[in-house]
């Protein structure tokens, strides 16, 4: 996940949940709405580009359809400053059988490069912590690239790095007929 990098360690300015910054520059965090498609798509394409994932309008359309489907697990937030979306977060609930609880998994976090350092990533993470509290989740969890030093500097300040190692297993080949 790409974020906006080092920020002030202070919390929200008290205007309301998910708000950061001074008057006029406050960052509001809110759910993604149907009217946000163009701005969200620009951010999502930037996120894919950051991780050197090939452009795909099919992926844009698919993820957007998930975000607009209340029955789909994937949900989204936008960080908005002065009426303009500058950051996104995609997240979902996951079961934690070992602790007989559930958590929030943050799949994607991205801030427009022009808005890095604005507090958008911190505001998104703070809002996710509030959602976890409100929904009775026991953790907000995510992964990031080891090389994403700017993001990791923020994550090291606001969360706990775990000792767990992540693995990916591809699907099995189709059975022979």
TrEMBL record:
Coiled coil stretches, renumbered: none
Keyword Hydrolase set for record: no
Limits of the N-acetyltransferase domain: 27-177
Protein name: N-acetyltransferase domain-containing protein
InterPro entries: Bact_Acetyltransf, GNAT_dom
Gene Ontology MF terms: acyltransferase activity, transferring groups other than amino-acyl groups
CDD domains tied to this protein: NAT_SF
Keywords: Acyltransferase, Transferase
Transmembrane segments: none
Region Disordered, annotated ranges: 1-28
């Amino acid at each position: 996940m790409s974020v906006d990098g080092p920020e002030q360690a202070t919390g929200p300015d008290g205007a309301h949940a998910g708000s950061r910054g001074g008057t006029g520059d406050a960052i509001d965090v809110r759910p993604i709405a149907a009217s946000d498609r163009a701005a969200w798509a620009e951010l999502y394409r930037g996120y894919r580009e950051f991780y050197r994932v090939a452009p795909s309008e099919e992926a844009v359309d698919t993820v957007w359809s998930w975000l607009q489907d209340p029955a789909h697990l994937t949900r989204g937030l936008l960080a908005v400053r002065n009426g303009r979306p500058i950051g996104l977060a995609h997240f979902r609930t996951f079961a934690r059988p070992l602790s007989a609880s559930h958590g929030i998994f943050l799949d994607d976090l991205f801030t427009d490069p022009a808005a890095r350092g604005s507090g958008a990533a911190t505001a998104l993470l703070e809002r996710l912590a509030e959602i976890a509290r409100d929904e009775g989740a026991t953790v907000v969890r995510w992964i990031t690239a080891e090389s994403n030093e700017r993001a990791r500097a923020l994550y090291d300040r606001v969360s706990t790095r775990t000792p767990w190692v992540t693995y990916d297993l591809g699907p099995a080949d189709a059975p022979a007929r």
